[in-house]
Design goal:
- β3 and β4 form a beta hairpin.
- By secondary structure, the chain is α+β, with helices and mostly antiparallel strands.
- It has 3 helices and 7 strands.
- Helices cover 28% and strands 35% of the residues.
- Strands 4-3-2-1-7 form a 5-stranded antiparallel β-sheet.
- 12% of the residues are buried.
- The chain has one domain.
- It is globular, with a radius of gyration of 11 Å.
Amino acid sequence: MNKEKLKNEIEKNDVIFRYNNKYYSICYFGDKYSVYETDVEHSEQRFNSFEEMTENFNIEGKAFKDVIGEIILV
């Protein structure tokens, strides 16, 4: 997966992906991106742009932009 493909997919559908056996969801609301780890209460984070999300959302201490190539869409 690369950033451009992921962005296009998110803008069409809600996305669920797996990274290191944990599942995450990304929803796009037209002007905001919501990201959360499934099955973890209060883990939602909202971002104003795709770029902001990829820069500031962290998974296991890594910036999302650095692990996009390792995620698996489900």
